[in-house]
Amino acid sequence: MFTQVRVVATPSRMVGKERGLRRFAAMTIAGVTLSCVCSVGSAQAQIRGEIVGAGARLIPIAVPALKRSGAVDDSSARKFVEVLRGDLELSGIFRVIDPAAYIDDPQTSGVTSDTINFENWRSIGAMTLIRGSVMGTGADMAVEVRSFDVADHSSSGGRRLSGSASEAARMAHRMADTVLEYLTGIPGPFDSRIAFVSNRGGHFREIHTYSFDGEVKKVTDHRSITMAPSWHPSAQALLFTSFRNRSPVLYSLDLRTGYDSRLASKLGVNVGGAYSPDGSRVLLAREDNGNTDIHELDPSAGKVRALTTHWAIDVDPAWAPDGRRMVFCSSRSGTPQIYEMTVGGNDLRRLTFDGNYNCSPVWSPDGKYIAFAGQANGRFQIHVMPASGGSPRRLTSSGSNEDPTWSPDSRYLAYSSKRAGTRKLYMIDVQGRQERQLTDGSSDDSSPSWSRRLE
């Protein structure tokens, strides 16, 4: 059975001083001053297909053009296939076979198991075939796609997606997520967005969003330094900190309207907000009387309470998926380390013991792992450890890598890396086997935050 889906399009940290704020180098939030870094940035991001890690064997997959009928917008049909191929290649699970090797004509060959010539696909080495058709009425399109096992001529499932022709990329992301679900039982992460900080297109560091067809959109215009974006669980709003008024203030941005508002205008100096899994509360680091602690904010009531009250600096709070526990970074042991405790302030537990600088912890959506940035040989690398505790596993090794953020399916991490000079966004699978660059250009891209799947 095809699932009928109507797709509706839904309208990390500073350079220099930013690092002092987010890490312990400055050892105070109040001492940060307003500064701007000038750079000419690229207006676009690109998905790069090269594998830069030691990879496991990839599944060869063929993704021919859609079989067209009706008044189909050819450019939208091509866009769907191009984005679908890009997502599957980016997953680190598949190797998309070059379309130049395809034997069948997609406009005359079959789309069902009894009409497909599987021998033609087997002869070019395909193990999996994605075959589909598109019906169009000009402004709208409906796509039916099935995944086939070439060896036994069987279909693992199919899906029907319909919407405006302008939404072709969004439909392709959903289809890619479905293909991964057929294979692994868990939907993929590509119908989502990554928010990040960049100076692309100007001199100021603003919040941008990245989608997996390579589209980058600037979503703030504070003409100042913005930092530390974090998604609302609905994926329709963002928290971020802005220096618009020359001191760090927490803002909430509604992506549907484009309007932002101060979320914590009377709380003094604050940074690093994170919504709870149900969206009702916010964790943030707040400087009060010269010391920085973790606080919990109830935006609807305007109430705030301190969760840590320690002489050490406590920053980088992140929620557990159940909303009952949190992880954060603290210098209470003498060096920055990762700690866990209940949101009520009880049952404090130190999680990291290796290394003298561990920060930016994030809990995986499935609750199994905690990722963080840990310093090794003078550079930061991305690590993953069991949420229950245990030895961390290093995922990255090239350059300096910071600001990890989990994909909605808990299979991947995005992060910023300075291995090529300026910082760019990368992603890696949780096993550390497939590592790929996401953004490109001359801009400095940092502080990624990965949304949940879009509605």
Element layout with pairings:
Layout: E1 4-6, H1 17-22, E2 59-62, E3 67-71, H2 74-90, E4 94-96, H3 118-123, E5 128-137, E6 140-149, E7 154-164, H4 168-184, E8 194-198, E9 206-210, E10 216-218, E11 226-231, E12 237-242, E13 249-254, E14 260-262, E15 269-275, E16 282-288, E17 291-298, E18 303-306, E19 314-319, E20 325-330, E21 337-342, E22 349-350, E23 358-363, E24 369-376, E25 379-386, E26 393-394, E27 401-406, E28 412-417, E29 424-429, E30 435-437, E31 445-450
Parallel strand pairs: 1-7, 2-4, 2-5, 3-5
Antiparallel strand pairs: 5-6, 6-7, 8-9, 8-31, 9-10, 11-12, 12-13, 13-14, 15-16, 16-17, 17-18, 19-20, 20-21, 21-22, 23-24, 24-25, 25-26, 27-28, 28-29, 29-30
Helix pairs in contact: 2-4
Short description:
The chain has 455 residues and is mostly beta strands. It has helices at residues 17-22, 74-90, 118-123, 168-184; strands at 4-6, 59-62, 67-71, 94-96, 128-137, 140-149, 154-164, 194-198, 206-210, 216-218, 226-231, 237-242, 249-254, 260-262, 269-275, 282-288, 291-298, 303-306, 314-319, 325-330, 337-342, 349-350, 358-363, 369-376, 379-386, 393-394, 401-406, 412-417, 424-429, 435-437, 445-450.
